[in-house]
UniProtKB/TrEMBL annotation:
Domain Acylphosphatase-like residues, every copy: 2-90
Protein name: acylphosphatase
InterPro entries: Acylphosphatase, Acylphosphatase-like_dom, Acylphosphatase-like_dom_sf, Acylphosphatase_CS
Family classification: Belongs to the acylphosphatase family.
Origin: domain of life: Bacteria
Length: 90
């Protein structure tokens, strides 16, 4: 299963990308995360349905200094490979 996500709120400059990488790697997910010019954080992740559900819950919470206002989460039907381990794109 593969998803695209975008997290809105106070999510840049608070360790959000590192938090996402650590959460994804702990769940053995492939994918990436990056900062967007509009202040959001976006990415793609691929793995089991259960692992993605756990990842989604963690993204919605975020690290201690983040303030997540909205999490957009969309299933994708793509077959190309995502990076493993999960990584930060610049």
């Amino acid at each position: 299963m593969r998803v695209a996500f975008q997290v809105h709120g106070a999510v840049q400059g608070v360790g959000y990308r590192r938090f996402a990488v650590q959460a994804a790697q702990a769940l053995d997910l492939a994918g990436w995360v990056k900062n967007e010019p509009d202040g959001s954080v976006s990415g793609q992740a691929e793995g089991s349905e259960a692992a993605l559900a756990a990842f989604r819950a963690q993204l919605a919470r975020g690290p201690a200094f983040a303030a997540v206002q909205r999490l957009d989460w969309n299933g994708l039907d793509m077959r190309s490979s995502l990076p493993l381990p999960f990584e930060i794109h610049r």
